[in-house]
């Protein structure tokens, strides 16, 4: 397993952590599997276009910013969890645009595990925060912005 593989799976960890604050728990397993599937397919399709990774990064950061400032579109998206299933293919852009020698199955496994860890740690932190946190959106927004920044910086 290379450092590149861990780096391209780290966005799944951070995004899943952010999503764990926003989505019902029943979506965690399907989303973690979808993160893995999309990253595995992205690695299989790798085409070496380093400039294209910015699209997913911009979308994540814009989503986080919209959530942070409370734009109406962000409020509507929170009530419809189906939009969350668009994130795994978008986050797989870093795997598509950077060719690597790692096996696609290994990329899928690493990403699914990272997403699972993100959902689990997010649930634990959410339980700690619940006592004093009136609104979970600001920490979730910060995590989405962090995931986008990670993708922009490393992808």
Summarize the structure in words.
The protein has 155 residues and is mainly α. The chain contains eight helices and no strands. It has helices spanning 3-22, 28-44, 54-69, 72-79, 87-91, 93-97, 104-129, 137-154. It is globular, with a radius of gyration of 15 Å. The two termini are 17 Å apart.
Q: What's the short version?
A:
By secondary structure, the protein is mainly α.
- Helix percent reads over 70%
The profile of the biggest β sheet is:
none
Label the overall shape: globular
Number of helices: 8
Q: Which sequence of SSEs, written as H and E, runs from N to C?
A: HHHHHHHH
- The poorly predicted ranges are none
Helix and strand topology:
Elements: H1 3-22, H2 28-44, H3 54-69, H4 72-79, H5 87-91, H6 93-97, H7 104-129, H8 137-154
